[in-house]
Structure formats: structure tokens, C-alpha cells
Design brief:
Layout: E1 3-7, E2 22-26, H1 45-50, H2 54-61, E3 64-68, H3 70-77, H4 81-96, H5 107-120
Antiparallel strand pairs: 1-2, 1-3
Helix pairs in contact: 2-4
Amino acid sequence: MILEAVVGSHAYGLATAESDVDRRGVFVAPAEAFWRPEKPPTSVEGKLGLKSNPTVLETLVSPLVEITTPLGEELRDLPWDDALAWAHRLGAEIAAARGPLPEEPDVGRVEDWLVSVRRRSL
């Protein structure tokens, strides 16, 4: 593992008490694994990163890095200019967004609706 970061709601300050912690990482297979007739699986993550894949970029730009090695630092320092600029703009938009959802759900209203749906399906 050369890089492990917290992603998702915890990385962006959106977590609640019920939120789990999502982690994503980058693993580099040891050179010895390529010396055998059976090779390790090929990764396409680097190619996805170059195509601005959000799943890959989220790992690279997460502010909550838990594990990093010199190789992990090199990976984070690569010139992902356009992709990272997009990711940072998106992060800023998310941070500034005000959603239409209330702080607490109206449980009673939802339960009433669910009961009405079940009654109509009898």
C-alpha cells in the first residue's frame, strides 16, 4: 500500500453519527510477483485517473491521508492539473451547497405514506 485515504462523507465534513468511514488506497504489486508465469491483475486506475474518473481522483485529492509512502507522495504530486482543478471546483461547490433536505426527516409522514402504499396494494 503506497497510499490510503479516507474518502466519502468523512473526507468532506458531511458525515453524521451513522456514517461509516470509507477508505480507498493504491497498492503496488511487488516486482517479484511479475517474475512468475502467473502475473498479478493489471490495473487500469492510472488510465482512469487521466480520464478524470471521480473514484480515482477522490483518493488523490482527499485531505485525510492515512498512509503514504514516498511512492504515494510521488503519485499525489503528479501533474493532474485539469483533473485536480475539476475535483477542487466540485469540492468547493459541494461545501457551499445548501440542500433541500431538513436536518431531521419527517419520519411520521414517511411512515404514513408507506402504510398508504401498502394498503393500496391489498
